[in-house]
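Input (SCO5918 family protein):
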Amino acid sequence: MRCVIARFPFDFVKDEVRQSMKGVRPEAVTGESVTIGRRRYPVKQVGEVITRQDRRDFTAGEMTRALTRLGFTCNPAPAPVPAAPASLEAASAMLGAPTPG
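Output:
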């Protein structure tokens, strides 16, 4: 399949992408991801490996579209985890107020 990533044309084949990612350890997923085999990779990591471009040169959206067209399952970015509420003592200390007690 022919596609353009960061203004450069590429011809991708699903089996070649699988082969390129074989033996590559997945980084922690913090944004969009793609499932290749039994592993989930960040789409930017896959893009860097298969295009040999710096991952700052292309967007996650470009790679997601290309990998989806090849038939891979792409996943959206995980929802952010809400911060735990601070205890009364910690909140008071941050504000400089005396703690009760």
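The chain has one domain: 2-75.
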